[in-house]
Amino acid sequence: MTQELTSPSPAPQAPGSGRGPGWWRDAVIYQVYVRSFADSDGDGIGDLRGVRERLPHLKDLGVDAVWLTPFYASPQADGGYDVADYRAVDPLFGTLQDADDLLRTAHDLGLRVIVDIVPNHTSDRHPWFTDPELARQRYLFRPGKGENGELPPNDWESIFGGPAWTRTDRGDWYLHLFAPQQPDLNWENPEVHAEFEAILRFWLDLGVDGFRVDVAHGMIKAPGLPDIGHGAQAQLIGSQVLPFFDQDGVHAIHRAWRRLLDGYGDGSGRQVIGVAEAWAPTPERLALYVRPDELHQAFNFQFLNAPWQADALRTVIEASLAATASVGAPTTWVLSNHDVVRHTTRLGGSLARARAASLLMLALPGSAYLYQGEELGLPEVTDLPDEVRQDPAFFRGGRATGAAGPGTDTEAAPDGVAAASGQDGFRDGCRVPLPWSGEAPPYGFGPGGSWLPQPADWAPLTVAAQTGDPASTLELYRAALELRRRLPGLGDGPMSWAPAPDGVLAFTRPGVLCTVNTLGHDVELPAPGTPLLSSAPVTVQDSAARLPGDSCTWWAI
Ligand code: NOJ
Q1: Is 497 left (phi over 0), alpha (psi -120 to 50) or beta?
Q2: Which residues does 402 contact at the CB level (< 8 Å), separation at least 6?
Q3: pLDDT digits (tens, 9 = 90+) for 39-91
Q4: What is the mean pLDDT of residues 465-493?
Q5: Is the backbone peptide bond immediately before 442 cis, with ω within 30 degrees of 0?
Q6: Whose CA is nearest to atom 11 of ligand 1?
Q7: Do 484 and 17 contact (CB within 8 A), yes or no?
Q8: How far apart are CA 481 and CA 467, in angstroms?
Q9: Which residues pair with 68 in a beta bridge?
Q10: Ligand 1 atom nearest to 215, measured from its CA
Q11: Is 411 in the pocket of ligand 1 (CB under 6 A)?
Q12: Strand 165-167 to strand 173-175: parallel, antiparallel, or no bridges (unpaired)?
């Protein structure tokens, strides 16, 4: 490592609105799925240089921070969530120098950078796993059941389908809650704790501004690894505590990590954060991950799962706000990510609803996560041929469904596997490389092709095509983020519900009122103020406002 790499680039002092203590409390954080964002070298796979070259797009969009999905050395059995070396950049994505350059450029632009950390499991090519002696201590090996140990040690199922155990040629079995190439670590071993703390320090020393903690609810398993007793376990995740998820013991790890993160507050205003990717059965249990001495944020998948119905949305918003308020944490909001069906498709294949849902999310108190491409209104790609598929769940027949909520086509599945969707419930359809410019694939994604084929009709959706068009989804997002920065009432802070007809939500933030018409037709109501921004043309005449169906409007009051 060069000397340059050891001196972290300073994080921006006051990105975002700068309101209140804690930049993350109202930050808009943009998820970059590195493999699909921008390709600099023509191999058809996005990379760190590609991200760096396109950072000005994110600056113009108006986000506060960027979350980069794993770019570490990995055999790519699960899109990089199978890490073989946590301190190295995979040659597919570049070099450590590229990571350092990206951090510096982002900080120069006033953008913070969060990276993914994957502590529940490693790759089966990690040197700890390839060494049989080390592996026995640092992973979860058990003897099999049955006369000759030929049966798995318990009845746990992999999230990606099939048993959660694989037998080695030595005859014992190891646990993998995900793919067999992702063995679960043994967090009862203090060496595992020490190693992960050292990895966090490595990236913090390079200058990152925080971590998105993968499977933050999974590291600790119930003592004795008890059977669950019935099948379809993946369907239970997020609705009850399971012996492998949301065990109370995980909180001690998060407390230790918080102490480590706080140690990087260096008096210069640097505040580094931890974000839990955690599936918990209730908002109250999720709030435990963001107690003052634990992580800073947790993804609010309950909101993502809510159907497009006023009552259901109101219920989930109230529950989320109450749960996080009880521990003094900000709420986060998210509609799309690399594991679920894009919300344009999920909300009934309606761009109008997707735009309205996005404006609703950006008007709520707290922090919001955007997934690359949602600012373009990209739909899920639903016609990918089998031969281009990469999602390991596709090949293992994993979980691909959840009960469909009314008003949605689907429900997002817990931790990592997309729900029943436009195509068949797997995750490649939301990971198709971004269209930047031009009339035909790869639409400026890079000088070569793209690792998943892009639809032939995406020319009107490119960043270039939408820029400057006031009716475009890109300009809607830009305007919303600009208003969020300009209006002190948005972001973190109070919110109250206002009276509204059935099917409509109305709530106030200081100086702003937000209406959401979830019905498929226009609704008329007394104009609550002057329209600031709307996801669809709103008309005001003689003090009456006509809200188009499936629309959201921000009003100055
Ligand atoms: C959650 C990640 O978002 C997903 O992509 C991954 O497959 C699983 N965790 C396992 O690491």
Answers
A1: beta
A2: 235, 305, 410, 411, 412, 413, 419, 420
A3: 999 999 999 999 999 999 999 999 999 999 999 999 999 999 999 999 999 99
A4: 96
A5: yes
A6: 81
A7: yes
A8: 15
A9: 32, 115
A10: 9
A11: no
A12: antiparallel
Residue 381 phi, psi dihedral angles, 5° rounding: -90, 125
Which range has the worst mean pLDDT, 14-28, 144-158, 277-291, 337-351?
14-28
Which two structure tokens, joined as six digits, stand for 344?
A: 């344009």
As a whole number of angstroms, the distance between CA 479 and CA 470 comes to 9
**Is the shortest distance between the CB of 214 and ligand 1 below 6 Å?**
yes
Q: Catalytic: which of 26, 64, 277, 375?
A: 277
Chain mean pLDDT for the chain: 92
**Strands (DSSP E) found in 343-481:** 367-371
Which of 244, 415, 431 has most ligand 1 atoms within 8 Å of its beta carbon, as the pocket-test mutant? 415
Distance of alpha carbon 401 from alpha carbon 421, whole angstroms:
8
**214 in catalytic set:** yes
Which candidate in 64, 214, 246, 409 is catalytic?
Answer: 214
Q: pTM of the entire structure? A: 0.94
CA-nearest residue, atom 5 of ligand 1: 416
Are the C-beta atoms of 55 and 106 separated by less than 8 Å? yes
Active site residue 502: no
pLDDT at 240: 82
